[in-house]
């Protein structure tokens, strides 16, 4: 028994993901290696796949739990079984895990094929088609439970698009009311209309983005101009001040000292000075000579 598995996260609620996966007969419309899934009744189905060769089997459903798990087991043809588990990761995200078991169709040679790389090849195909399923769900309208509502059906790599489905699958699809020519034409028109709306919205967003960039660039340039003008004005004012200082008459150092002198007792520093006579400013601190006083004659009273 050989085992394979693959996982994918789908951006949709778990109930929608589970419901869309149960449409086995739509697998050839978006999967690449499933050529047929036709129903005998609600529990039994017939499968045809192409993986390194064409294999088919009848299967019966088993272990189905709504929004949680589904499974199948072959009753004849290629001996295999499978489980698909669904786990909610939030309101709009669902984890899907697929587990397959089968007996290689050619006994020992089949086991040798697994050892030589057929298993890795099948893993890659399984993972790719599971990603196709996720894309199919994500391109369906929110809450849609019919795969035909998805825009991703019949993409270029699907078995139906490549013309690789079986004659029984083709007949089954022709009997499907959703596959009538007028219904398919209406679906295609809707897809093209929605694609046009998306392109228009993307164009409007791109134009808005460009306008925003242009406005930001214009604002930045205006701010730069204001900064440069301010710098030019500052330099001009600096030059004017320097010119005024250079043209001013230099002050006499004595006058400068007289204006700033604040020494103790140096009050004569504020007096006008004879420009032809330089006096030591410290002389103002010398004591002034006092006038001599005559000794008083004693007063003699007459007797």
Instruction: Count up the helices.
Output: 5
* N-to-C order of helices and strands: EHEEEEEEHHHH
Over the alpha carbons, how many angstroms does the gyration radius reach?
Answer: 51 Å
Mean pLDDT, all residues = 84
Question: How many strand units?
Answer: 7
What structural class do you assign from the helix and strand content?
Answer: alpha+beta
Low-confidence region ranges: none
Profile the largest sheet.
7 strands, antiparallel
Summarize, please.
With 303 residues, the chain is an alpha+beta fold.
Please explain how this structure is put together:
- There is one protein chain.
- By secondary structure, the protein is an alpha+beta fold.
- It folds into two domains: 178 residues, Alpha-D-Glucose-1,6-Bisphosphate, Chain A, domain 4 (2-Layer Sandwich), CATH 3.30.530.20; 65 residues.
- The chain is 41% helix and 20% strand.
- It has a seven-stranded antiparallel beta sheet with strand order 1-7-6-5-4-3-2.
- The radius of gyration is 51 Å and the shape is elongated.
- The mean pLDDT is 84.
């Amino acid at each position: 028994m050989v085992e394979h598995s693959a996982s994918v996260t789908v951006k949709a609620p778990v109930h929608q993901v589970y419901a869309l996966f149960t449409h086995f007969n739509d697998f050839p419309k978006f999967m690449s290696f499933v050529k047929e899934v036709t129903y005998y009744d609600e529990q039994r189905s017939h499968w045809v796949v192409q993986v390194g060769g064409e294999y088919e089997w009848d299967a019966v459903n088993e272990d189905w739990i709504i929004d949680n798990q589904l499974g199948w087991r072959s009753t004849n043809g290629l001996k295999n079984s499978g489980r698909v588990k669904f786990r909610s990761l939030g309101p709009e995200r669902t984890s899907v895990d697929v587990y397959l078991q089968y007996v290689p169709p050619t006994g020992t040679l089949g086991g040798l094929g697994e050892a030589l790389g057929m298993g890795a090849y099948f893993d890659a195909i399984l993972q790719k088609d599971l990603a196709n399923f996720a894309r199919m769900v994500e391109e369906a309208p929110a809450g849609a439970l019919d795969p035909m509502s998805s825009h991703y059906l019949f993409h270029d790599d699907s078995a139906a698009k490549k013309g690789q489905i079986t004659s029984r699958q083709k007949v089954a699809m022709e009997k499907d009311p959703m596959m009538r020519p007028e219904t398919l034409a209406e679906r295609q028109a809707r897809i093209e209309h929605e694609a046009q709306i998306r392109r228009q919205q993307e164009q409007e967003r791109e134009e808005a983005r460009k306008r925003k960039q242009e406005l930001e660039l214009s604002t930045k340039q205006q701010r730069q101009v204001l900064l440069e003008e301010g710098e030019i004005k500052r330099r001009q004012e600096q030059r004017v001040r320097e010119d005024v200082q250079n043209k001013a008459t230099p002050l006499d150092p004595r006058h400068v000292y007289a204006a700033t002198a604040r020494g103790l007792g140096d009050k004569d520093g504020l007096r006008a000075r004879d420009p032809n006579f330089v006096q030591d400013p410290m002389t103002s601190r010398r004591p002034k000579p006092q006038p001599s006083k005559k000794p008083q004659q004693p007063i003699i009273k007459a007797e």
